[in-house]
Write a structure and sequence with these properties.
This protein is mostly helical. It has one domain: Amino acid/polyamine transporter I. Helix 1 packs across helix 7. The longest helix is centred in the middle third of the chain and has 45 residues. The protein starts with a helix and ends with a helix. The model has no long low-confidence stretch (mean pLDDT 86).
Length: 362
């Protein structure tokens, strides 16, 4: 299985942009008010720094995924412990995304369809894509869905231009301190730092040329789109209303009304979002199954999908309410990212560098 550098770019972009735009605007506005867009730009820089770290680590071990090079560096037993936090993070994230998606579709579109049915439908489709095509099929799918998602975002911004009130962006640094602006950037940074998935994906890239540039570009593009989305939400709703909205971007699209003719475009956005969630669930279903096969040292990763899929479904089902989803997101922000995106990659980088110096010294 192989993917191109551009497929990696679109995989990371598609996986990050959908959930970031959907869920991270309101929490940032609640803290930073009309300066939330500055928080998104800070998150863009922080996400880029984290991406640089994890890509640098992955490039030190070409052709090997996280489970493979961690065992090579640390030995069989200790090397098998390293992926455990990542498995925990990926399973919880997948269950969280699956449940958030099902709750939203149940709320706005299919209110008479049980949530468990909606979850089973999207997960069943993800099993088919991951099991039949692997990362190659996911990469090709993201090459289609990624550009469609970005075009949809840009068109929605343009169609809402007549509703914008620039007064809602001022005063800059008026109602939020620098500390609050930086604090508001942590949550979106945690979504952009999801790029630590490249510790696995880099092993499938056929040509590593310019892979650092493409990885950083995917995170920066997501961050810029998130910042522009935040600006549009603030221009249309203002900071007071925007922080109260559960899905501010969706409400932004619902507010489009040009000459009483161009209306009800939210249904198109919902379908684009479904494609993005489908790509994200398929991606993590593949990553968890493939990495588990590397830990177990078996070449047959596809049967492990029948372990990963039920785990993701069960996690999604046991999430009781929106409060639990917010708790999981705080867990991701304050524990998963510091451990999986910073501490472990930094340690692996140091160990790799130290071993190479010892070899040269000999």
């Amino acid at each position: 299985m192989k993917i191109t550098g551009w497929q990696l770019f679109w995989i990371v972009t598609t996986a990050e942009v959908v959930m970031a735009v959907w869920l991270r605007i309101s929490p940032a506005v609640e803290i930073a008010k009309q300066d939330a867009w500055l928080s998104m730009l800070i998150a863009c820089l922080l996400g880029g720094a984290i991406t640089y770290l994890v890509v640098k680590v992955g490039m030190q071990h070409p052709g090997q995924s996280l489970a493979q090079f961690s065992q090579e560096l640390l030995g069989s037993w200790l090397g098998k412990i390293v992926p455990i936090p990542y498995f925990t993070a990926w399973f919880i994230l997948s269950g969280d995304v699956l449940r958030s998606f099902a709750d939203f579709i149940h709320l706005v579109l299919l209110d008479k369809t049980p949530v468990w049915v909606l979850m089973a439908m999207i997960l069943g489709a993800a099993i088919y894509l991951s099991g039949t095509c692997g990362i190659t099929g996911i990469g090709r799918f993201c090459e289609i869905v990624g550009p469609l998602t970005i075009i949809t975002l840009l068109v929605s911004f343009l169609l809402n231009a007549t509703n914008a009130r620039w007064i809602d962006l001022v005063p800059v640094f008026g109602d939020a301190s620098v500390t609050e602006i930086v604090k508001a950037s942590f949550a979106p940074t945690s979504f952009l730092a999801e790029s630590f998935m490249v510790l696995v994906l880099l092993s499938f890239v056929s040509n590593p040329k310019n892979i650092m540039k493409k990885s950083l570009a995917s995170v920066w593009l997501t961050g810029i789109l998130l910042a522009v989305s935040t600006v549009m939400v603030l221009l249309v709703f203002g900071p007071t209303l925007a922080q109260e909205l559960r899905f501010p971007y969706f409400m932004l699209v619902r507010s489009i009304n040009i000459l009483n003719f161009i209306q009800n475009l939210d249904i198109l956005v919902i379908f684009i979002w479904i494609f993005g969630v489908f790509a994200k669930i398929s991606l993590y279903l593949f990553i968890t199954s493939y990495e588990l096969s590397q830990v177990l040292r078996t070449k047959r990763w596809k049967p492990l999908i029948w372990f990963s899929a039920p785990v993701i479904y069960i996690i999604g089902m046991i999430i009781p309410n929106e409060s639990a989803i917010m708790t999981l997101q705080r867990l991701w922000e304050f524990i998963v990212i510091p451990v999986c995106a910073l501490a472990i990659p930094a340690a692996l980088w140091i160990i790799t560098s130290a071993k190479r110096r010892l070899i040269k010294a000999e």
